[in-house]
Design goal:
two-stranded antiparallel ribbon; 2 strands; single chain
Length: 533
Amino acid sequence: MADSASVNETAGAPPAGPQASGYSWYVLFVLVVVYILNFIDRQILSILAVDIKADLGLKDSDLGFLGGAAFAVFYALFGIPLGRLADNWSRVKLLSIGLTLWSTMTALSGFAYNKVTLTFARMGVGVGEATASPTAYSLISDYFPKRQKATALAIYSSGLYLGGGVSLFIGAAIVEAWNRSYPAGGPMGLVGWQAAFLAVGIPGLIVALWVATLREPVRGAMDGVASPSSATPFRAFGKDLSMIVPPLTLYGAWKRGPAALGVNIGFAAAVSAFAWWMIALTGNFPQWSAVALGYYAVFSWACTLRAHDPATFRLIWGTPAFICTTLGYGLVSLAAYALGFWSAPYAETVLGLPKQELALILGANGALSGFIGVIVGGRIADALRERNPAGRILMIIFGVVAPIIPIWIGYTTENSTLFYAMNFLAGMFGATALGAAAATTQDLVLPRMRGTATAAFFLGTTLVGLSFGPYMVGQISDLAGTIVDGKPVSDLRTGILSLIAVAPVALGLLVYAYRAVPRAEATIAERAAAAAA
């Protein structure tokens, strides 16, 4: 289907508005490669989970923590100052540095020898990957006009599914080959899952050099609104970093006055009490400590942003349409991240499928279903947007409702073919929402705020989706399990089916967003000016 620019050119009329160049599409290709690596490094833990669980003596809830909050909290928190740095410094340089960091930490995961060392490595991966989407979203917004934005973002987001799918195949192939060649452990005593981390981490260092060759575009060029970068980007970055790192957060609150300090301490006490209660209930100290840290740090950042950049705060945190879109999609991502992490261990332990087979089929399933879903969803979302300012929200709602039946059928059947087919449909339907959600949040802010808006958007997909999706399934799996021959046996089927319960909440948030988006988008400049006055 030709876009409007193509139609105009065919008719002999000049193109309307700014155009995406051939170099724009080249940059998008490079960014997709980076995102593929991003998700290979992030998701390879899934296919290695059964081996890691056996070697390190972990439970499903431990694996859920390692696949979720251990990564997600630090990814989300450092995405805040790094998103602001992306608004004020070279996005190309920042992405290259971040790719170097997360690739190095992925490789170091191969030397982990217990839960603690693997946790620290996963934290490092989270910090490095926090540079990826704020820089990429901002670059795409300056290389593509608004009418193509959801499509471009959807193409970029396809790297999520391609990387997640490839990670299963690569991980299984390396584990099988390594353990076959070194049944008693290879060089330095490394076993298959450790070798897999090394094999996928090192290539990222080469790609980082490729990223460094990209050109930095003019900020705001596609919108006709020049947005110059800050003259002192790292001073602002240092301030932003101090907003999220306790106890510096207390000092920052104190500088804003006794009332701000009291509110900050009060929130810290409340979230700590909640974490203590959940730790007592579940026995999982790392999960709830990380979640408490994450939510406290985000609260501190939001309060500081309100004091120092009221316009940005108003268009993000002070806009219900933005919040409901982000949280609504965050619950879509909760199910997507949980299925992405647990489908392979489920197939291996519940259905008894061989690792090599399930990795190949689930990997291809995940890559193809996600790619089709995110591209088609992005195109449909753009078409709906032309007819209705809130049209993209309808695509997110579809991503909530459509996967329910495939999840139920796929995770109750004993037939492997039906399982694979339903897993494909669930992944494809859920993926249709991503481009629509990302484009909607970008359209609700000014160009200079896009990196920060991206960081805020990814708070929803990480502190809501990734922090809780894999962990929720693992925790319910442990709680619903039984004792067999004196040993606990988890119930992954019940854990995964519990994901359906989040759909009504997501639907309610998105219905509200559908009603609120048109007015919010129409009053961006007015509300930003009023907040800054």
